[in-house]
Amino acid sequence: MKLAIDGVFYVKEGFNFEKVLKEILKILGEDTKILSVEYPELALISEFGYYYRCGFMFDKPLKEKPSKEEIENIKRKIEELFKDEIIYTLTCEVLD
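-> structure tokens emitted (96 positions)
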């Protein structure tokens, strides 16, 4: 059993993606497996500025199924790290 965390974001120029990745790994713990990381790449030009698409896929092994509240708490903490950015997708789900 594992917790699968998958996210895609649009961030403004100068966003410190590596710092946020490290914070997410602290939240999830040392046993988290990094499946993929998409570093910021120019994806959107608007009247409000440039936005860069970035994302990740992580798997966290689980010994027991976490509560819905625990999963929502992890998701909320990740959302806070991207609070001034565009969260395109963010899923946290338990897979067998």
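The helical segments are 17-28, 68-81.
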